[in-house]
Specification:
Layout (H helix, E strand, L loop, with lengths): L4 E7 L3 H11 L10 E8 L3 H10 L5 E3 L3 H4 L6 E4 L6 H10 L3 E4 L7 H13 L5 E3 L7 H11 L6 E9 L16 H4 L4 H15 L3 E10 L4 E3 L5 E3 L5 E9 L5 E9 L8 E8 L2 E6 L5 E6 L8 E4 L18 H16 L11 H20 L3 E2 L3
Parallel strand pairs: 1-2, 1-4, 2-3, 4-5, 5-6, 7-12
Antiparallel strand pairs: 7-13, 8-11, 8-17, 9-10, 11-12, 13-14, 14-15, 15-16
Helix pairs in contact: 1-9, 4-5, 5-10, 8-10
Bound molecules: nicotinamide-adenine-dinucleotide.
Length: about 375
């Protein structure tokens, strides 16, 4: 029997837009019998980016520089929008009001006001399913961590550390781009770019910060402008948030969320570590196939490391002993989105709009905390 297709358009065909183009092209990898995404529309203001799509994806029927063309097409049911942060509010709201489903990108609005306006549009158009992208939880070894959290294997949680660290900005000759410019990236700086990635699992399992103390650093205030001169770099490079979390069982614990652009040696280090009285565990994309854990026994404890292999949430054709990587996590994230679109509840789902709202409350409080050197309540 022919499988159901969901016709997609993509707005913003850069780094992330192309990842979706490629993931959709290898849907045969999955052993899921749910709907298949078919890309029919592609939009970018840069003709070179559009050309990559029309050259590589034969199903594209509408290739355009004006995203409204995709909104007006009856053939398109869902859109992925991966554009700079200053454009999120306008384009996401337009997509939702056009009655299309949306996978948006973080931070899901350049600031709290933009995010609230997007959420208002979602509330007014409940027929559109809206989610925000975040792929790292879909690594099988990280899924093992989520399973342990859900099974309450950690006992009383003492501390959680989650972070996303990069190092390419350590190269001071690297020219500035939109992600380092406050007008395109927003006042959150590194927190807006990297923060939702660190918050997805904690928020989903109910670890909601009650308060935050934020320490933000702008370490490199100027960067090459790419034209032989220098440009101001006013975005925050590094951020450490110390959060007080109320656990559902009445206990509370500190949660440290770090997002850094200047983390020596961290090419793309996303991690989560949970420390509990009965057990502790760690996952990092620097050792992407391993789940590292410890079960508390007596005075001394020893860490164990198991290589989980290719055992993803949504089964695939890849042998279970093989390695799992970034593009596999993107494919799993999209498969999870498609399952939800099909009315099913995946084992682990993409970031929900209300979680982006919480993220903005946290990041806005962190900005205030850093400005005033205070501990701020996180109020949604
Ligand atoms: N999920 C992730 O892991 C991840 C990784 C990187 C970036 N992102 C997010 O994805 C989004 C895009 O980031 P990117 O790294 O792909 O950026 P990018 O610069 O590589 O791509 C953005 C694209 O948007 C296009 N664009 C700009 N204005 C447009 C308009 N009006 N209409 C259509 N296209 C337009 C640009 O020409 C560019 O091709 C951001 O929100 C970013 O935070 C997510």
């Amino acid at each position: 029997m022919a499988r159901k297709k969901v016709h997609f358009g993509v707005i913003g065909l850069g780094l992330m837009g192309k990842e979706f183009g490629s993931a959709a092209a290898r849907w045969c990898h999955l052993l899921d019998d749910g709907p298949v995404p078919e890309l029919v529309g592609a939009c970018d203001t840069d003709p070179e980016a559009v050309k990559w799509f029309t050259d590589n994806i034969p199903t594209i029927k509408i290739a355009t520089r004006d995203y409204h063309e995709l909104l007006h097409s009856d053939e398109i049911e869902a859109l992925y929008c991966a554009v700079p942060h200053n454009l999120h509010e306008q384009i996401y709201v337009d997509i939702i009001r056009a009655g299309k489903h949306l996978m948006g990108e973080k931070p899901f609005g350049i600031d709290q006001k933009a995010n609230s306006n997007i959420l208002k549009a979602i509330k007014e158009n409940p027929e559109s399913m809206v989610r925000c992208s975040s792929e790292f939880p879909f690594f099988p070894a990280c899924q093992r961590m989520i399973q342990w959290i859900r099974e309450k294997r950690f006992g009383r949680i003492m501390e959680v550390h989650a972070g996303f660290n990069h190092s390419s900005d350590m190269d001071l000759s690297k020219p500035i781009n939109w992600k380092r410019m406050i007008e395109f990236n927003g006042e959150y700086g590194c927190m807006g770019d990297l923060g939702i990635h660190t918050q997805h699992i904690p928020f989903r399992v109910g670890w909601v910060p009650r308060s935050v103390y934020g320490v933000l650093s702008n370490i490199v205030p100027e960067r090459p402008d790419g034209k032989g001169g220098a440009a101001p770099c006013r975005t925050w490079d590094n951020a450490t948030l110390v959060c007080q979390v109320d656990n559902q069982n009445g206990s509370s614990f500190p949660m440290y969320l770090e997002t850094k652009r200047l983390a020596p040696g961290a090419t793309n280090r996303w991690f989560i570590e949970v420390y509990g009285l009965e057990a502790s565990a760690k996952f990092t994309t620097e050792d992407p196939n391993a789940f590292v854990f410890l079960e508390t026994r007596g005075k001394e404890q020893a860490w164990s490391r198991v290589v989980v292999g290719h055992k993803p949430m949504i089964p695939s054709i890849t042998g279970s002993i093989f390695e799992f990587g970034f593009s596999d996590s993107i494919l799993q994230m999209w498969a999870s989105f498609l399952q939800e679109l099909d009315g099913k509840e995946p084992l682990f789902g993409c970031v929900r709009p209300e979680e982006t709202h919480l993220s903005h409350a946290l990041l806005t409080a962190a900005l205030k905390s850093n400005r005033n050197n205070t501990v701020e309540n996180v109020t949604v």
